[in-house]
Amino acid sequence: MTAAPPNAVLTMFSNAADEEVAAAELAAKLKTPNLGFVLFFCSVEYDLDRLGAAMRDNFTGIPMSGCTSCGEITSKGYDQGSIVAIGFDRRLFTVSHKLVENVDCFGLLDAQQLVDGLLNECSDGVTETPAENNTFVLTLMDGLSVNEEMVLATLNSALGSIACFGGSAGDEYRLSGTYVYSDGGFTSEAATVIMISTSLDFEVFSTHHLIPEKNKFVVTSADPEKRTVYELNAEPAAKAYARLIGVSVEELDDMTFACSPLAVRINDGYYARSIQRVNDDLSLTFYCAVENGIVLTAMKTGSLLDDLEAKLSGIERRMGPSWLTLGCDCCMRYAQIESEGLVDQASALLRRYGVIGFSTYGEHVDGMHLNHTLTGVVIGQRNRL
User: What is the rounded distance in angstroms from the CA atom of residue 167 to the CA atom of residue 253?
Assistant: First the structure.
């Protein structure tokens, strides 16, 4: 294996409040003769129309994708009110991307046509034939569209053995509007699918720190389309959940949801279903799919930092030094870290492994929509070709 040339992947962030200044700061670092694609994540505190225009003006002719966040992960670690971007060198990465509009109508034929188009575009780049060993896919979706499960499962069927991960756009817990960006502007009720082929080593991963307990609930009344559970074990959902974790209904908030999650068991794995909010009728609205009859297992939280260290250090031992870890991190993980006073320690760990990304309203991995996880890809410095 040979070493990749310098600047294979560049990253930059800006905390400037003015959209034009922020975009110009990104361009000053990322615009090089070999810049082939820009990926970014931004706060909803920006005026998105102005930011979109500023990014177009500062990166003229460069393909771009991105989304709004529930917090950013920059070279400082966890951040808020910022924009962070990654620039990919065209000599080492071939990137194709497609915008999926009207995600509620996305079918298998649409998915196959989309994947065929992405594969055709990637086949002309640094890797002759896109395949599972040289290609991965990143998905970014409107985090309030309530269509992630359907879109991801459909897309996964068309992708076959190509690894796919991603995250759902956020809006800093406002729950009023989340957006994806694709070549010119921000769009809701949409997704962007980004295929990246590279000659560099990489490893797609997903990790969480949750441990199942004995207590379980059966969802006895729910509205799947609204991701809302009215009853758990035939009792008002908020009352049943509050009693389980030993607090009053009035004390339920983002911190309690983050530290006392529920999960569904699929085969031998547990997949978290994070609670988004308590409603006036004592129902619970979730970030992920819920439906009548499913069993939800109470989960306790282990050490998030120990789990993250173990996962990323293991990849480093296998692959060697990395250029970048692109991470999609559940907003509930940040809420837990904040409640435990561990933000500084977590940020130091993220810096150590070069994690750049955003806090999400849901994570994507191989056709599934998850919560309480960090999903991503580690891109190594060694060139396989």
Answer: 23
